[in-house]
Design brief:
seven-stranded antiparallel β-sheet; two-stranded antiparallel ribbon; 60s Ribosomal Protein L30, Chain: A; 2 helices; mainly beta; single chain; 9 strands
Length: 150
């Protein structure tokens, strides 16, 4: 993955270009760690050679993996980066299109890029924090902790 700063101001904006074989969540998390990102949002388009979506099952408090082991177009990938236990955590949802025109979507659990993924990320000057929620088992944004960190 290659990245470049597009705009420096109160909010920084980066463009990231993923290369064939890059694992999206791993690469984006490494970038967030290297840049010290604590509150960001992003969108992307491109394609994957394979992807694992997740559908959250309330009863199990866990994601049911939905594997698509085929070439798909990334119609939209959107998400955010916030701190959880002091480390950046990527939260992303994706809608992908198959060759027959059908679309599949969900939480992005894993994806391999092919041939590229073009992602634009905007960093906020504030910090976002996540906390584990006992009722759902999810790491949810904690606005109270975010407000005290401002």
């Amino acid at each position: 993955m290659k990245g470049q700063l597009l705009h420096r101001g109160r909010q920084k904006t980066y463009v990231l270009v993923f290369e064939p074989g890059d694992e999206v969540i791993d690469e984006l998390t490494a970038f967030a760690r290297a840049k010290g990102l604590a509150a960001s949002h992003f969108t992307a388009i491109g394609a994957f050679s394979k992807v694992t979506l997740g559908y959250f099952e309330r009863e199990r408090k866990d994601y049911k993996p939905i594997r698509l082991d085929e070439q798909v177009e990334v119609l939209i990938l959107a998400g955010d980066v916030a701190l959880k236990d002091g480390e950046p955590k990527v939260h992303a949802h994706v809608v992908v299109g198959k060759a027959d025109g059908t679309a599949h979507g969900g939480h992005l659990l894993a994806a391999r890029v092919w041939p590229t993924l073009e992602l634009v990320l905007t960093e906020s000057p504030r910090r976002l924090r996540r906390r584990s929620d006992a009722a759902t088992g999810l790491a949810l944004l904690d606005l109270e902790a975010t407000a005290t960190a401002a």
